[in-house]
Every structure is written in structure tokens, then in C-alpha cells.
Design goal:
This protein has a domain at about 195-215 and about 225-370: OB fold (Dihydrolipoamide Acetyltransferase, E2P) (Beta Barrel), CATH 2.40.50. About 40% of the residues lie in helices and about 15% in strands. It is built from 11 helices and 10 strands. Strands 5-6-7-9-8 form a 5-stranded mixed barrel. The protein has a 3-stranded antiparallel beta sheet with strand order 1-2-3, with no helix packed on it.
Length: about 375
């Protein structure tokens, strides 16, 4: 019974309090709406007064000229300085001056204009156009080698060959001929031929060439059926090696003079490229220095003169070219030259000579021959 009485009291109190709270909330909302309407009416009245003033002053503004109108409406606000340095200000000023100059003259375009650089801290202005830059003349005469009569006309550097007219030809002579077995520091060719080292090489090579053994084939035990050169040239084409730029230079001439001291006539001009030819064409280039390539069909060791002979194209005596390698040089290349060269593609750089009616190349240095 007590609980029912308490619930009735609570309901009665709530019923009496709720209408008062809702009434106060409504009154406050009405007050806010009235204040907003007052502010909106004030703003409308102000805008109306401004539009009326503009309409009144329109005839007076229309009387002004077009130049003054653009000056009044396009006038920029003063730029604010937020701690920028004097260098950036000077750059902006120079850019403005340049733009005004371009607009007035109209001769120089913005694309061709050189970029402007800020001033240095020391005060020197580094803004220069490309037209005002001066290029120092390249004095090639001072950098030329004065050690040889040939190098006075041609200047050699590493992997480059500079002619007298200034053209540069890159070569790979230093990459191919790596060894330094020969003395190449002579002033001219006459001193080279009069030197003791060259005379010693000359006598050794001459004696070796005269003591060479002539091979004789026993046809009774030999049953090889040769194929004519014209047919093999068409059907069996040798695989070409990687191209190498070899240029005939004074240093290369000195080296080949040591390789072949008995040869006197070198009909190769400085700056000319050493051509790469096939073994089929070797007979057409006898007496010249070429880079020759082909496949080794037979390797023969001659115990009489201690030479290894590589026969390219076909076995002896039907070979296209024979490559002669002394034993001490062949042992520097490989401990088993027969196994190393037989049935392999090789290229050789050397002087092509005739021996017993067949073209041959004598290898005097291990740098002259490669397997590929």
C-alpha cells in the first residue's frame, strides 16, 4: 500500500513539473529566432544601402578613362616580407626587369633565356647568360708526346688516338696487347733499328726462320679427301669473333717491328683500322697485317724446330692458313696446346707471309692469338 502511494506522488509531481519545463524551452527558442531575424534584417538593410550608394556613384565612375580603371582595379596589394633574404629579393627584382624587357623588345623568348642564380654570400653576382661564357682554347700542342717523330703528328692517350686535325679515334690496342716484353721508348725508327735489342731480335728471328723444318706428308697412310676452297667458302662459313677496334698507331708499329724484324715495308697508314678477315681470304692479303679468324682442324708439333703448327680450314697439306707458334710461347698459353687449340675457333693478329706456297702467320707473343 505504501509503495502505491509513493508512485502516485511521483507521477503527480512529474505531471506538474513537465509543462513548466516545456514552456520555458519554447520561450527561449522564440527569443533566439527573433534575434536571428533582427540580425538578418540589419544585414539586408546594409546591403541595400550599399547597392544604392554604388548605383549613385556609377555615373561618376563611368566618366573615368579605361587606363585609370585598370590601374585602380588591378592594383596589387603591397607584398609582405616574412623574413626573406636579400638574395631572394634581388632575384625577384631581376626577374621582373627581365620580364619587362622581354615584353618591350619581344626578341628573346623565355625558353632561350638562361636561368638566373641568386647572389653569393660574398656579394659576387653569378648570373651569367650562355652567350657571355667564354670557352678556353684547347692547346693540344702542349699535351702531345715529343718522344717520337710519329707521335709529334699523332697524339696517343689511353684508348684514344688523336689525329692532327683534332679528331679522336678510340681503339682497344692496350686491351689486346697487354704484355710489355719489348722496349718501345725510341725516338724514331732509325734508332730502333740501330739498337742492340732490335739487332738481337733480328738475328734470332732470322736464324729461327732458316732452321725451320719442312713437313712431308706420307700419302700411303693418309686418306683425307679434300674439299675445294670455293665449296667450303660457301657451305662452311666460319663463325665471326667479337669485333675489336685495332688502330695502327706508332706504338703498334714499334711492337710489330719487334715481332717481324726482317720485314721492312709497312704499307699501313697511321689511324687506319686493322681489318678482320676470314681464313678463306688470307691468300689475297699476303704482306699486310690483318686480324684473321677460322677453325683449327689439326695441331701438329714439329720436334725438329720445336714449333706448334695450327692448320685452319683443313688438315695439312690442304689448309687455308697455318699458324706457327714456338714452343715456349705455346706453353705460356696452355700446358697442352694440342688439346687447347684443336677443333676450336681462333683469331690471330699478325703479318701474313707465304711458306711453301701457303699463307701463314707467325705468333711472336701470346697477345696475338685468342680462342673464341
Amino acid at each position: 500500500m505504501r509503495t502505491l502511494i509513493i508512485l502516485a506522488i511521483i507521477l503527480f509531481a512529474g505531471a506538474t513539473v513537465y509543462p513548466q519545463t516545456t514552456r520555458s524551452a519554447r520561450e527561449s527558442k522564440n527569443e533566439k529566432g527573433s534575434s536571428r531575424s533582427e540580425t538578418s534584417s540589419r544585414s539586408v538593410s546594409r546591403s541595400g544601402s550599399k547597392s544604392s550608394q554604388d548605383k549613385k556613384s556609377a555615373p561618376s565612375r563611368a566618366s573615368k578613362s579605361q587606363g585609370s580603371r585598370t590601374a585602380d582595379f588591378k592594383q596589387k596589394a603591397p607584398s609582405r616580407d616574412y623574413g626573406r633574404s636579400s638574395a631572394s629579393r634581388s632575384v625577384q627584382e631581376t626577374r621582373r626587369v627581365a620580364e619587362n624587357h622581354d615584353r618591350t623588345s619581344g626578341s628573346v623568348s623565355r625558353s632561350t633565356q638562361a636561368p638566373l642564380r641568386p647572389e653569393m654570400k660574398g656579394g659576387g653576382n653569378t648570373t651569367r647568360s650562355n652567350e657571355n661564357r667564354t670557352v678556353r682554347p684547347d692547346n693540344t700542342d702542349r699535351s702531345r708526346n715529343q718522344t717520337s717523330s710519329a707521335t709529334r703528328v699523332y697524339r696517343e692517350a689511353r684508348n684514344t688516338f688523336t689525329r692532327e686535325n683534332g679528331t679522336v679515334m678510340r681503339h682497344q690496342n692496350d686491351d689486346v696487347f697487354v704484355s710489355r716484353r719489348f722496349n718501345l721508348d725510341f725516338n724514331n725508327f732509325d734508332d730502333l733499328r740501330r739498337s742492340d735489342d732490335f739487332r738481337r731480335e733480328f738475328h734470332d728471328f732470322d736464324n729461327w726462320n732458316h732452321r725451320r723444318h719442312i713437313r712431308i706428308i706420307n700419302h700411303y697412310h693418309y686418306r683425307y679427301v679434300p674439299i675445294p676452297l670455293e665449296i667450303r667458302r660457301v657451305r662452311y662459313i666460319y663463325r665471326r669473333p667479337v669485333h675489336i677496334d685495332l688502330i695502327w698507331t706508332p706504338r703498334l708499329l714499334h711492337r710489330f717491328m719487334y715481332y717481324y724484324p726482317t720485314h721492312n715495308y709497312w704499307n699501313v697508314e697511321y689511324g687506319q683500322e686493322i681489318e678482320t678477315i676470314s681464313a678463306y681470304d688470307a691468300a689475297e692479303w699476303v704482306g699486310t697485317v690483318k686480324r684473321l679468324y677460322g677453325k683449327v682442324e689439326e695441331v701438329y708439333y714439329s720436334p725438329e724446330d720445336e714449333n706448334y703448327i695450327l692448320y685452319i680450314g683443313a688438315p695439312f697439306p690442304y689448309q687455308d692458313v697455318s699458324v706457327v707458334i714456338p714452343r715456349h710461347i705455346a706453353n705460356d698459353i696452355s700446358l697442352s696446346p694440342k688439346w687447347y687449340f684443336e677443333n676450336e675457333h681462333i683469331w690471330v693478329v699478325g703479318l701474313i707471309n707465304l711458306w711453301e706456297g701457303k699463307p701463314e702467320i707467325v705468333v711472336r707473343d701470346e697477345d696475338q692469338i685468342r680462342r673464341y
